[in-house]
Here is the input.
Amino acid sequence: MNSRTKVIHIEGIVGLIEMSIDLPDELKSDPAFVIRGLALVAHPHPLMGGTMDNKVAQTMARAFNQLGYVSVRPNFRGVGGTAGVHDDGVGELDDLLHVTDWMRTPSSWSQLEATAHQAWTANANTLPLVISGFSFGSFVGSHLVQKLAELGRPVERLVMVGSAAGKWNLTTVPADTVVIHGEVDETIPLIDVLDWARPQELTVQVVPGADHFFHRRLHCIRNIITGAWLGMPDHRHS
Here is the structure.
């Protein structure tokens, strides 16, 4: 954790939701800095030690910061300061939907000390939203993207790291989804991800030598995410 990271608690469906907010460096010196959008990062399985402070989740959040996004990493139910108990993805989906509503509400940000005087907060309801998740978080994230589309609130993009194919029922995802997987993932075999991606004609970006937690390969995640945004439209300069 550093000076860009703020831990807060918001009211959720079954109690408090604890989450970390990661701000781009530029906002520290320039409260008028125009951010590119908002990014939600979902962590791995709570019953297997997953938390918002997981190194992969933190790496994803920082990658989005580099791209000019404000990142939010909530703890799932029963983890850290988040109320409730693990709900196999059902309650977790409800909670993430609630968090995205919070993220897209200007008054949410204007009430926080860390962001109260930053210009971008007034436009939080119009900013692009990126959904991302690692492992179990990718499963919940895929359903969140589908749910938001059904509600008429489509997201800008989905990023899935260590995609939970074969373990949980992933939805069909948008064609521009960024799928990153380790070559020697021992938890979710690469072949399971390829079998899930094949009928959708999705590209899977494989990191050679990487295990499930991308030990000594975290920089590859950062580079793939930032590289995926090269050439994409940037609303700040349009």
